[in-house]
Amino acid sequence: GQQVMQIPQYQHVQEGEDFTTYCNSSTTLSNIQWYKQRPGGHPVFLIQLVKSGEVKKQKRLTFQFGEAKKNSSLHITATQTTDVGTYFCAGPPGNMLTFGGGTRLMVKP
Amino acid sequence: DAGVIQSPRHEVTEMGQEVTLRCKPISGHDYLFWYRQTMMRGLELLIYFNNNVPIDDSGMPEDRFSAKMPNASFSTLKIQPSEPRDSAVYFCASSSAGLPQHFGDGTRLSIL
């Protein structure tokens, strides 16, 4: 079956440093979604990428979908303590989502 | 919009007891998903419904787990009998076709 892998599993950064998490799928994806889960909270949708090579920005967050539509990345510029949480990528088949293992981001003030 | 509503928020019970988790999806959403989250296994899809019909239950761990969706506004996930290894956070999520999923706050289940 489809597998979605994320690296790294954990990342500690100093506030103000940049952060990147990478997502790789074993199969070509029709789209990829990113979610953020704060400690003790539930996953919250951030963004969906559909087109090959697509890049989208949300303030300090930059999302990229690979040309082959099998990988994606999330880059946060100048992290803040509010960025703490676990970031998940997720890909279909169909209306199901297979979630990656997530990258837990910890930010030291 | 009230969002996806799950109950109870926390459940502590002894092994062997029946556990029932409840979910009210967002009105108008035709897909409903049940997930389990643990440190060891991450976020796992257990089962999902489309228009109240179970579509894929391949993630349900074993026969002790069952899920129903009697109507468009209510779903249950039952564990009978419960075991300590069932301890986890259980999330319900809903969506419309092709659109992102909206998660409830989850039920934190502890089986002693």
Q: How would you summarize the topology of this molecule?
A:
The complex is a heterodimer of chains A (109) and B (112).
Chain A lengths: L3 E4 L2 E5 L4 E7 L6 E6 L6 E6 L5 E4 L2 E5 L5 E6 L8 E7 L6 E2 L3 E6 L1
Parallel strand pairs in A: 2-11
Antiparallel strand pairs in A: 1-3, 3-8, 4-5, 4-9, 6-7, 7-8, 9-10, 9-11
Chain B lengths: L4 E3 L2 E4 L5 E6 L6 E8 L3 E9 L2 E4 L8 E7 L2 E6 L8 E8 L6 E2 L3 E5 L1
Parallel strand pairs in B: 2-11
Antiparallel strand pairs in B: 1-3, 3-8, 4-5, 4-9, 5-6, 7-8, 9-10, 9-11
Tell me the major beta sheet of chain B. Answer: 7 strands, mixed
Which two chains have the most extensive interface, and how many residues on each?
A: A-B, 15 and 20 residues
Instruction: Give the count of helical stretches of chain B.
Output: 0
Determine the structural class of chain A based on helices, strands and strand pairing: mainly beta
- Approximate shape of chain B: globular
- How far the N terminus sits from the C terminus of chain B, by CA atoms, comes to 36 Å
Mean pLDDT of chain A: 93
Number of strands of chain A: 11
Count of individual beta strands of chain B: 11
Summarize the structure.
With about 110 residues, chain A is mainly beta.
Question: Can you put this structure into words, describing what you see?
Answer:
The complex is a heterodimer of chains A (109) and B (112). Chain A has 109 residues and is an all-beta fold. Chain A is built from no helices and eleven strands. The relative contact order of chain A is 0.33. With 112 residues, chain B is an all-beta fold. Chain B contains no helices and eleven strands. In chain B, the strands form two sheets. In chain B, strands 2, 4, 5, 6, 9, 10 and 11 form a seven-stranded mixed beta sheet that branches. Chain B has a four-stranded antiparallel beta sheet with strand order 1-3-8-7, with no helix packed on it. Chains A and B meet through β5 and β10 of A and β5, β9 and β10 of B.
